[in-house]
Design goal:
The complex is a heterodimer of chains A (314) and B (324). Chain A has 314 residues and is an alpha/beta fold. Chain A contains eleven helices and twelve strands. In chain A, the strands form two sheets. Chain A has a six-stranded parallel beta sheet with strand order 2-1-3-4-5-11, sandwiched between helices. A six-stranded mixed beta sheet of chain A has the order 7-6-8-9-10-12, sandwiched between helices. Classes of the chains: A alpha/beta (314), B mainly alpha (324).
């Protein structure tokens, strides 16, 4: 299945380059609309860079809109994208309520809809591409619990409540906790924006309530790095181990220097997701079948192997 | 005969005159002219209808904000009230399976109550409007989150979302129709009803208004209640547009609403301006966002440009007043 998909893409790309070397676009796709929830978040910015870089090589124009985390803004922006006559639509839903409306609007125009990161309930796109969460979160938590000697008080700083990554990353981490009876989950708290300032504040309050915390899992690198800062401020850097998730640019650099309690993350293949999204868009536009779900793995990243990811983000 | 005709047509012009907002109107027309030349896709019926769709929530909210600012107040709670209204609507209709009519009424009542409390805090306890509505902003947001413990609600009846998508007669979605009704009703109210005129009196000088026999406290409380109810209505329109409700909706919408009112020429110190100008202010923001998207302007640059337009609009008004 996957092989067939890849061959189809390859043949379409090859055929187009061969016949119309100077023509714009590939397989009838000249213009792609990309709706991003929030470009402040490095994760989405990396996907955008992946889409733009790859589409640029193929001579496809990419129009990017940034919803600043607001679902209503995103619906308006998608209307504007459709007005501009896009040939395919890459949709990363904004806000906790992934709106079905953008998908319906694009469907009404007969345009391929490629969901990345999440898909709205009841209105799936032609395919959804998202990072594997459960196993990777398990690996991160397993690693930090291991570093703490398999026991001690642990806290979890969640992402935005109810979102798929929030739920799945906790599920994975819970598996690691359950395997180590010596680990005690003493507190957990949800953030709104997955942001470092929230991570800092939440961790500070947790450390106030439980000064003997050994292990902190932040469900995103922003949260984890904020928490690591709070640990340093509380002068507990020797005692606490912090794990994160996503493999943001800033987080990877921090891992290379390795001078904070934040020591491990799971690096998502964000740029690869962007490339995959463009390929899927071309395939769907040309009637080829694509898998309903495409799930690239995240790679466990520690101080030892972070350097190569800084050089080239996967 | 002839003279009454003339009088009537004059009145008609009065209602739809933009009174003091000629600057913003010229700005809006220039903006539209520029975008029509700069892009292929701007000047079309379809895009114009899209813009109307896109400004419904802001439009309804900004009308309420105009009244509050007219009486020299401010309402920071509108974004949170919008979220509270959406969550009450979702809870009543989906979780408690009540008919939509009851759910909508419930959402509006819940919103109006927030405004009522803010109004009473301001009039009876002499809390400054900025602080009273800041407190209500926090309280309403918290309540909205408590209803579902922070998660979203989906599963509205199909017709609810269709109301925001289907264009009856190829032109009007139900949500846009609601916005237009709000615009026309409030324009008429502001110009012809005693209550509408009282807003200007209270905003101009509350003491003089009181001596002239206007019940200032009553007007103030009713204004905040109406503003909150309109935010609640905006929340219902947004729920229809998104086909889902979430407690994190409407963050920082109060700033958009205030910006629209100010761009439309209503003075933050109260007493001058009106709904006519605000409608233009809302259109400027809507056209600008739409146009910048159509021009594929980078999201970061868009934020800078919108800030510059606010500065320009207010500076233009200030210069005009100085010349007078």
């Amino acid at each position: 299945m996957k092989l067939m998909f890849k061959t189809t893409i390859a043949s379409i790309v090859a055929a187009t380059i061969a016949t119309t070397a100077l023509a714009e676009g590939v397989g009838g796709v000249n213009k792609i609309g990309l709706a991003v929830p929030n470009l402040q978040a490095d994760f989405f910015n990396q996907i955008k860079l992946g889409v733009e870089g790859y589409a640029g090589k193929l001579g496809i124009e990419v129009i990017v809109v940034d919803a600043k985390n607001d679902t209503a803004t995103q619906v308006s922006q998608v209307q504007d994208l459709l007005t501009q006559g896009i040939d395919a639509f890459i949709y990363i839903p904004a806000g906790a309520a992934a709106a079905a409306v953008p998908t319906r609007l694009a469907r009404a125009e007969g345009i391929p809809v490629i969901n990345v990161d999440r898909e709205p309930d009841g209105a799936p796109g032609d395919t959804v591409i998202y990072g594997e969460n459960v196993m990777s979160a398990y690996q991160v938590c397993d690693h930090i619990i291991g570093l703490a000697g398999g026991k001690g008080k642990m806290v979890v700083i969640h992402g935005q409540k109810g979102t798929t990554p929030e739920v799945q990353r906790f599920e994975g981490c819970k598996m690691a906790m359950d395997e180590n009876p010596g680990v005690e989950l003493v507190a957990q708290q949800w953030s709104q924006q997955w942001s470092p300032d929230e991570g800092f504040q939440i961790a500070q309050n947790m450390l106030q309530a439980h000064p003997d915390i050994r292990i902190i899992f932040g469900q995103a690198d922003g949260l984890a790095m904020g928490a690591a800062k709070a640990v340093q401020v509380a002068s507990l850097a020797d005692q606490v181990i912090v794990g994160g998730y996503d493999g943001d640019g800033a987080a990877l650099k921090s891992l290379v220097t390795c001078d904070t309690p934040f020591v491990v993350t799971a690096t998502q293949s964000t740029q690869a997701m962007g490339v995959l999204a463009v390929n899927s868009a071309i395939a769907v536009a040309n009637g080829a079948s694509v898998p309903a779900r495409q799930i690239p793995n995240a790679v466990l990243t520690t101080c030892d192997n972070a350097a190569k990811f800084v050089e080239k983000h996967p | 005969m002839n003279s009454t005709d003339k009088k009537r047509s004059l009145q008609f012009r009065d209602v739809f005159s933009v009174g003091g907002a000629t600057g913003p109107l010229i700005g809006l027309l220039l903006l539209c002219a520029f975008l029509s030349f700069a892009t292929d896709s701007f000047f079309s019926i379809r895009n114009f209808l899209n813009i109307l769709d896109q400004i419904t929530v802001l439009g309804v909210m900004a009308v309420g904000m105009t009244f509050v600012i007219l009486i020299a107040g401010i309402d920071l709670s509108v974004g949170s009230v919008l979220a509270l209204s959406m969550m009450v609507l979702g809870y009543l209709n989906v979780e408690a399976s009540m008919p939509m009519g009851i759910a909508i009424s419930g959402a509006l009542v819940a919103s109006a109550l927030v405004g009522l409390v803010a109004g009473l805090l301001i009039t009876e306890f002499k809390v400054p409007p900025f602080i009273a509505t800041l407190a209500m902003m926090s309280i309403a947001r918290g309540l909205a989150n408590m209803i579902t413990d922070g998660s979203q609600i989906i599963g509205f009846p199909a017709w609810f979302n269709m109301g925001a998508i289907i264009r009856y007669g190829g032109f009007l979605t139900s949500t846009v129709a609601v916005m237009l009704i709000v615009f026309i009703t409030t324009l008429l109210y502001q110009r012809y009803r005693e209550g509408g005129r009282a807003l200007y009196a209270v905003g101009g000088n509350p003491e003089v208004a009181r001596l002239a026999g206007i019940k200032v406290k009553r007007v103030t409380v009713l204004t905040y209640t109406a503003c909150a109810a309109l935010s609640g209505l905006a929340g219902i329109l947004l729920a229809a547009r998104l086909d889902a409700v979430q407690p994190s909706s409407g963050v920082a919408y109060e700033l958009d609403a205030i910006a629209a009112v100010v761009i439309g020429g209503t003075s933050l110190s109260g007493g001058t301006g009106g709904v006519g100008g605000t409608i233009i202010g809302v259109l400027i923001i809507g056209v600008l966002r739409n146009g910048l998207n159509l021009l594929s302007v980078s999201p970061f640059l868009q934020a800078v440009i919108i800030g510059l337009v606010i500065v320009l609009a207010v500076a233009a008004e200030t210069f005009k007043h100085r010349e007078q």
